[in-house]
Amino acid sequence: MGRVTAPTAKGDRVLRHIVLIRFVDTATGEQRRTILDGLARLPEAIPEIRSYVFGLDAGLSEGNADLAVVADFDDEAAYRTYATHPVHVALMTEHIRPITASRVAVQHLT
C-alpha cells in the first residue's frame, strides 16, 4: 500500500529512510536521552539530510518498537553520505548499537 504525495519543494521524488529500533530491557533513560540528543544534531552535521523526524514510542500499543527515525534524502548518494558520515557512525557505534535489541529499516522512493 502506498500513498500519493505532493511534489517536494524541488519538484522531484525523495528517498525515504525509515528505521525502527527496540532497545534492550536494561536501556536507561539517560541512554535514551543521549540518543535523542545525538539524533537532533545530525541534520546540522549532515547537510544531505532533507528532512529528519524521530521519536520514542508513545507507549500506546504493546509490542511496538522503542524508537522511530524517518529521514528524507534527495537521492541514493545523499543517503549513502549520511549512512557513512562520521558523526552518524559514531552515534550508532557508541550509543545506539550497545543498547539495541533489534532493528529494522527500509528505504523507498516517495
Termini separation: 12 Å
What proportion strand? 25-35%
Structural class: alpha+beta
Order of helices and strands: EHEEHHE
Whole-number mean pLDDT:
92
Strands, count = 4
| CATH fold-type name | Alpha-Beta Plaits
Count of runs of 4 or more consecutive helical residues? 3
CATH class: Alpha Beta
The major β-sheet equals: 4 strands, antiparallel
* Strands in their spatial order, largest beta sheet: 2-3-1-4
Over the alpha carbons, how many angstroms does the gyration radius reach? 15 Å
Q: How many distinct domains?
A: 1
Low-confidence spans: pLDDT under 50, at least 5 residues? 1-7
CATH arch. level architecture? 2-Layer Sandwich
Helicity range of the residues? 25-40%
Shape: globular
